[in-house]
Design a protein that fits this description.
One of its GO terms (cellular component) is cytosol. The protein is α/β, with parallel strands linked by helices and 194 residues long. The chain has helices at 12-29, 45-54, 105-115, 174-180, 190-193; strands at 5-10, 35-41, 60-67, 80-83, 93-101, 121-130, 142-147, 152-153, 169-172. α2 links the parallel β2 (35-41) and β3 (60-67). The chain binds 1-O-pyrophosphono-5-O-phosphono-alpha-D-ribofuranose, hypoxanthine (HPA) and magnesium ion (MG).
Length: 194
């Protein structure tokens, strides 16, 4: 275990087994359909790479890059699109692939945006779902693991762009981000404090 990690919440073995299970389920659910896996960069990279190979049918992959956390541990509340899809999705069944649903702001923004492009269907597969209060409910078709409301890193999840390469999901020692965080970053955004 890396020295900055306090506790492992989801092991490499648990992730592997869950990805296999999700891939199997998705294969059954999307048989005969034109499936597009839509990965949300950068956090979803390891998950979508493993999930795609666990899906036993032809499908497409595309990515969107959005960012709302920057180097902070709380969402800024403002989602910025850094990279858009390559083409239209009106002939596709879109499955958004996320590493984590935390405040839910990123997904709400993505779902609202993508609905306007009229995909044949639009659903979400997230590896992690944080148990916490949310301003608006979210409908999630596939959830890997429900985790407590702690800041986690690994398997794609970062703190200040680091730790994405850890093969497990772990809780970062608070002193790691408390030492580095600028005071203004510690305020809750208006969207978070409601
Ligand atoms: O439910 P939310 O509170 O919106 O948080 C979830 C989002 O935040 C993270 O992305 P981030 O904006 O940090 O970009 P990254 O994937 O490049 O790290 C994560 O990968 C999700 O996309
Ligand atoms: O707990 C988290 N860790 C890393 N990135 C995140 N983005 C939203 N929540 C988290
Ligand atoms: Mg991030």
């Amino acid at each position: 275990m890396h020295e900055d990690i306090e506790e492992i919440l989801v092991t490499q073995e648990q992730i592997k087994a869950k990805v296999k299970e999700l891939g199997h389920q998705i294969t059954q659910d999307y048989q005969g359909k034109n499936l597009l896996l839509l990965g949300i960069l950068k956090g979803a990279i390891p998950f979508i790479a493993d999930l795609s190979r666990a899906i036993d049918m032809l499908h497409e992959i595309d990515y969107m890059a959005v960012s709302s956390y920057g180097n902070a541990t709380q969402s800024s509340g403002v989602v910025r699109i850094l990279k858009d899809l390559e083409g239209p999705i009106d002939q596709k069944h879109v499955l958004i692939v996320e590493d984590i649903v935390d405040s839910g702001l990123t997904l709400h923004y993505m779902l609202d945006l993508l609905r306007q492009r009229h995909p044949l269907s639009l659903r979400v597969c997230t590896l992690l779902y944080k148990e916490r209060e949310r301003a608006k409910p979210l409908e999630l078709a596939y959830i890997g693991f429900r985790i407590p409301n702690l800041f986690v890193v690994g398997y794609g999840l970062d703190y200040a762009q680091r730790y994405r390469n850890l093969p497990y999901v772990g809780v970062l020692k608070p002193e790691v981000y408390q030492n580095n965080q600028k005071p203004e970053r510690q305020h809750k955004s208006p969207a978070e404090s409601s």
